[in-house]
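User: Could you walk me through two proteins back to back? I'd like the raw sequence and the structure tokens for each, with a short line separating them so I can tell where one ends and the next begins.

Assistant: Of course. Protein one, sequence then structure:
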Amino acid sequence: MTTATLSRWDRFRDSFFWYSFKRDKVAIASFLVLMLMVFAAVFAPLLAPTDPYDLTQIDIMNSELPPVGLSGSDAAFPLGTDAQGRDLLSTILYGTRVSLMIGFGAVVLQAALGILFGLLAGYLGGRVDAILMRIADVQLSFSTLMVAIIVGAVVKATFGSLMFGEIAIYMLIFIIGVSEWPQIARTVRASVLAEKKKEYVDAAKVMGFGTPRIMFRHILPNTLSPIFVIATVQIANAIISEAALSFLGLGMPETQPSLGSLIKSGFDYIQSGSWWITLIPGLVLVVLVLVINLLGDWLRDVMNPRLYKG
């Protein structure tokens, strides 16, 4: 490594952030589990025994096989198979990748909108602030699921199920991202209202810097701490929203597995004894959301010294 790289690593190693992380066993365990799940999802094509998108690798005669260890299981399918004969381990790996893509994509979109509108409302104030915050109030009066159900139903009725399946992932990112931006916008606005009264902002104005430069290069970096915390928690919320919509039939189709669509596909088979089709993806979803929320809680405490007790 170069001297500059070593210097950055030394600063990070000596920072309070690293000190608090290595002393928090829950944060370490959550981070390791999350990284393991992200790694498995990213490299799903290499790790999965079969490709659930390849119909030539699916045999309907292998449908509803139980996990290894139960009567009637097949060693070729460690976690069993679903009603379509797909290997459940493979569909979970691919499904986790889809759920993470939707979660991260939706948070990037809502962060971009929230930061932009929050900066404009907080820095410009006046009529711009009033209009943007009223829009945010109206947006908050509708839940994410309500907006997604309405938009999803309209898109599905307009373009048909086939077209809906092709654009489902992009539609979910858009719906969840647009529905949740007011929370970030309000947080950024509150931080900007405090920051714009400080001397460095006055100095930037005296030096003749333009409004965009002051907002994005001077004020924004000092408002990022709460955004990181909110974004971490919102990733988990976005994944849950995708699972709920898929379970209602307005998210990912069963032919494109996500954790939500996998849970939905096996729900009708619980009474027949094929509980693993729903239970195993459900446990993966619970663990994924749990570790993200635990990391979000730790990040919130570390970035707020009044709360941190490590």
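----
Protein two, same layout:
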Amino acid sequence: MDIDPRRLRVLREVHLRGGVMRAAEALHLTPSAVSQQLVQLEREVGLALVDRSQRRVSLTPAGRVLAGYAERVEEELAEARRELTRFTERLAGPVRIAAFPTVIQHILVPALRDLAARHPRIEPAIHEVFGPPALQELRLGEADVLITEQDMSRPVLAQPSLATRALFVDEYRVVVPPDWPEPPRHVSELADVPWVASEPHLACGQALDRLAGLHGFEPRKLHVITDFAPTLALVAAGRGVAIVPTLALLDVREGEVLVSDIRDVGARRIDAVTRVSRTRSGEPDPVQAVVIAAIERATAELESSLSAHLGQPRDEVPG
């Protein structure tokens, strides 16, 4: 039995993504080309791998078994790449990193400079994506390293197929318009004001809901914004108050917003997540390992600069 490994990958994508259309998008092929690859694979193995009796294409039991072996083939190839790196002093190849804006700006950009100096043949590619879509990219192999954020009150992402490494704890701050007479000192003072809120599945959205529940009020979410730049612009314009992480305040101009003295707002946890290696050695991909090391070095430098930043008076953002 002679099986083309490229067709195995097509079968694996159809299985993981639940259909031909999504597999075609992931593989940058037409649905017709995917269907043809599946037909050729069925000829090679002499078995029906796809159930075409329903409107939605699914795999037969034999197809699911072979798709499982296709995943193992991918793992064996990854193992081979790891073994071959022993014969060269220079790591090379692409690595795909999924992350969100504040981490891209303040951690990944410095990390990439470090990485280019130490390992110039590594080719990092960053995709701005976060939340459930980012986790799906990692699971499906579209991302190699995922940087996540989550409110500290939530449990650490724990799945057998994923490895999570803590990077950074980013404290929240409550910011208010610059023309307020003085920053509030208690969350209860903000029960009746409009909020510039984050999406509820994001860390700052989780923090607002948590604080409101603890203090017994329903926040008036007048604006719902994902990115921190427009969030801070709305606060600066007097359109509401907001919870933002410290990283979001690093580039804010002096006096643009007031930072409150409210304590115990909490923090978001920033983690690096990778897929767990299920190969014989169990070791991580060497390219991914040096990328994560560069990210950790950049994070350590950021923490040092933040210590100086947080040492400034807290009633307004320093220049």
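The mean pLDDT is 85.

Let me know if you want the two compared in more detail.
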